[in-house]
Specification:
Layout: H1 3-16, H2 18-32, H3 34-55, H4 61-80, H5 82-109
Helix pairs in contact: 2-5, 3-4
Amino acid sequence: MGLMELAREMGKKIQASEEYKNLYEAKEKNDNDEVLQDAIGKFNLKKIELNTAMASDQKDKEKIETINQELRTLYADIMKNENMAAFTNAKNAMDKMMNQVTNILMLCVNGEDPETCDPNPPSCGGSCSTCGGCH
């Protein structure tokens, strides 16, 4: 089997995964949630209003701050929605899985053993005093 056929098989396996199914189920619920869609519409309009205010030659700092605060409130309301929360969790799980797949492939391209390479690269903790060095 060639690489392209293997990639298509991998695509089928990805689409059969729980992560994929959960993401698309959550997406469908979001799309059908009228309250959420209305809130997203209001958010997008407010974002346009903020961009317009910021692009104005005579910027009204107070107006910009008011719009920005309204935008933050709308965003918080969207993120509190149970369907959006489920979508965010499902998307994070899907992203994690896809990052692991990509990491394995990149490690293999760089000569690592496909059977033993770690798909979860170490991350920087921010403290150089405990760092063992990169890579």
